[in-house]
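Course exercise 7: structure representation. Students receive a sequence record and must write out the corresponding structure in token form. The form below is the worked example handed out in class, using ADF-H domain-containing protein (139 residues). Read each field label carefully; the graders check that inputs and outputs are placed in the correct fields and that the protein name is recorded exactly as given.

STUDENT ID: A-19
EXERCISE PROTEIN: ADF-H domain-containing protein
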Amino acid sequence: MANAASGMAVHDECKLKFLELKAKRTYRFIIYKIEEKQKQVIVEKVGEPTETYEDFTASLPADECRYAIYDFDFMTQENVPKSRIFFIAWSPDTSRVRSKMIYASSKDRFKRELDGIQIELQATDPTEMGLDVIRSRVN
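STUDENT ANSWER:
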């Protein structure tokens, strides 16, 4: 169903892929794109579990907005392996104003569809979502 504020629907595949990442760890990341003509959020790309954070950031377009989920693995100070699911709202300064507005107005509703997000980041350039930023947010 479309969101009254932005008119964006969320394709079922978006939720399905997220559940697979969360429950089965089938993917390392998922990149979502708003299809303006269809007025819905769709899955643009999924990353295999073996892909790195660099593979993930390289998959984000330099001048277009996207939503992304990243499953970050890390070790606690007690040497316990853990993971956190990040939601990243990628909105580069170079993207179109209309696109930034649509992504911003659709974000909260889209996030509510994905139950299990643990940490949210808003990034307008790559330094705002660097690996050091990700690491600092898990502790």
